[in-house]
Amino acid sequence: MDALDGILYGLSVAFTFNNLLAALVGALAGTLIGVLPGLGPTAGIAMILPLSYSLDPTSGLIMMAGMFYGAMYGGSTTAILVNMPGESASVITCLDGYKLTKKGRAGAVLTVVAAGSFVGGVISVVGVMLFAPALAEVGLLFGPAEFFALTAGGLLLFSRISGGTLAAGIFPMAIGLMLSTVGQEAVTGQDRFTFGLAELTLGVELVALVVGLYGIAEIMSVVEALQKQVKPLPVKLRDMFPSRQEWRRSVAPYGRGTVLGFIFGLLPGPSATLASFAAYRLEQAVSKYKHELGEGAIEGVAGPETANNAAATSSMVPLLALGIPFGPVTALMLAAMMVHGVQPGPMMMTAHPQVFWGVIASMLVGNVMLVILNVPLISVWVSLLRVPNHIFLPIILMVASVGCYSVRNSMLDVGMLFVVALIGYTLRKLEFQLAPMVVGLVLGPLIEKHMREGLFMSLGEISVFYTSPIAIAIWVLVLVVLLLEPLRQLFARALGIKVKKIIPESSE
Amino acid sequence: MSNRTISKRTAYLSTGGFGLLLSAGYVAIAMQLPFGEMDAPGAGLFPVLVGAILCFASIATIVEGWKTPRAEGIEIPAGQDRARLFKLIALLGLYFGTMPWLGYTLSSCGFALLLMRLLSPLSWLRCSAYAALMTGTIYLCFIALLKVPMPSFALFF
């Protein structure tokens, strides 16, 4: 099936009532999550994970994907209206977005952002359509040694690129890997680290971990720093339309943001966040109006928001083509696939074409829905921002406990939610990264599986993991990235050559 | 917002030390699992490797703590902010602790009431009304309509 046949098939899957509803619900829920404080897309998607188990795999994944790019739309709304990013990828939007709001251009900026997100999302979907099948073809050449290198190396890379120092990434990653070994081992059926508790035989529940780390821990930070809520100014419909000049100035940032975002989405790491920061830096370097950036330039909003939506879309490529998640959201989607019995990997395109092409096509549909709905719904989001925290936070916490308990009807999961929230809050205060823990929990069983398969097929020869050229190339890349920071410091000290920090301080 | 700082160096050294103890315990338990043969590894092989990674990560944390200047601090809440945070943690503990006995609906109503009192200057009466409304809505959506089986106290709640 070539790309055109595939997308036509995907559209026939996406245009069923159930899948259209799933895309709509996911996109709207994602936007709501992006707008509201205290919940990011990761925790929000974790909360609907149990709901997705009762849907068919295609609808469940379509809903989760919809929430992801919907949250990118929503996060920019609060960044622009009240100078508070709804999620980390919208942090940079605060700089120029809020300045434009104070100049009375809030409505126009929100429309520019909605259009940019649409452009970035749709063009990125075309890229996914062309790139994912090609990557899946390459993936068919991979054996267990290559997949071991990809999963283990990718996890190490992700932990390093997530931001901060080496320890800030790999310590939580190691905790995540450790948690992934709890439960009944897949091949031998041996119970590991269950301490006699029958409920732990099924392992650590992903929903409890993610909602605890990203949801409850975030709410603890919000309550700790409880401040007077900034109320957004009302946005009138007639002020929603950008001027001709604003449209003209947005075109080039749309193009640059799309390309940059698409590339970042293919790489391990917090792709949407990194893409938005990189897009802003690109605008600072090449834009004709760079002197206005930071003071309310439309380029400072159009470029980053286009980039983050493009990255959110293209981050599906490694997941769909190779079955490797390069972020916590795609890790959750991988977990959902495995629960539904959809084996992720290069064979998914042929074994489950309705899932593969259905998810890609639904991203096109979802982006169209978002751009049509979000412009008139902006006043709804604005009024939601006026609802006080003391109303929202109890509701979020009560719904979180429903979501967590309902997965396995287990109070142990609820208890784990509480303990993980405390750990997450503490780690965040100490500037550790949380995403590597989530990805470690999801990838741990896969890494073990590929290791076991490699040893089995090579009759116990460890050299299988370092004799394959593809595996060697992956490990060399991982080593280079891990050694980037020490090399940078060495250059600075020994040769007096200063190289800018490539890995940002933190992405959380 | 009132803040205090704690030494980042001490925090990282403590975290790394805790990690080392955790990895030692983890590996000790993993060593009791069967290792199998190299061409058919048992359940114990991967955990031992993970324990080694955790040990390395803990040492990296300790080294980073060692290299951190003594003056560098991490902000932690103090005063009213800290009191509010501890009250939230206590409320969450109470909420999750009472859920199996009081049931989801009653414990959630009580939790919402106390949390709103913590976060706002609203009166007990208003908080009770809002808590009842929120809990009722969630009960209707999730328990009555979607039939999510939550812990219950009596026949319906």
In summary, what is this structure?
By secondary structure, chain A is an all-alpha fold. Chain A is 73% helix and 1% strand. Chain A has one domain.
Give a description of the structure:
The complex is a heterodimer of chains A (508) and B (157). Chain A has 508 residues and is mostly helical. Chain A has one domain. Chain A contains 21 helices and 2 strands. Chain A has a two-stranded antiparallel sheet. In chain A, β1 and β2 form a beta hairpin. In chain A, α2 packs across α16, α4 packs parallel to α16 and α7 packs across α8. The model of chain A has no long low-confidence stretch (mean pLDDT 85). Chain B has 157 residues and is mainly alpha-helical. Chain B folds into 2 domains: 75 residues, no CATH class; 67 residues, no CATH class. Chain B is 69% helix and 9% strand. Chain B has 5 helices and 4 strands, in the order βαββαβααα. In chain B, the strands form 2 sheets. In chain B, strands 1-4 form a two-stranded antiparallel sheet. Chain B starts with a strand and ends in a 12-residue tail after the last helix. In chain B, 31% of the residues are buried. At the A-B interface, α8, α9, α17, α18 and α19 of A face α1, β2, β3, α2 and β4 of B.
Question: Which structural class do the helices and strands of chain B define?
Answer: mainly alpha
Largest sheet of chain B, in brief, is: 2 strands, antiparallel
Report mean pLDDT of chain B, rounded to a whole number: 91
Number of helices of chain B: 5
Order of helices and strands of chain B: EHEEHEHHH
Give the overall shape of chain A. globular
State the domain count of chain B. Answer: 2
How large, in whole angstroms, is the Cα Rg of chain B? 24 Å
What is the string of helix and strand elements of chain A?
A: HHHHHHHHEEHHHHHHHHHHHHH
Strand order of the largest sheet of chain A: 1-2
N-to-C CA distance of chain B: 40 Å
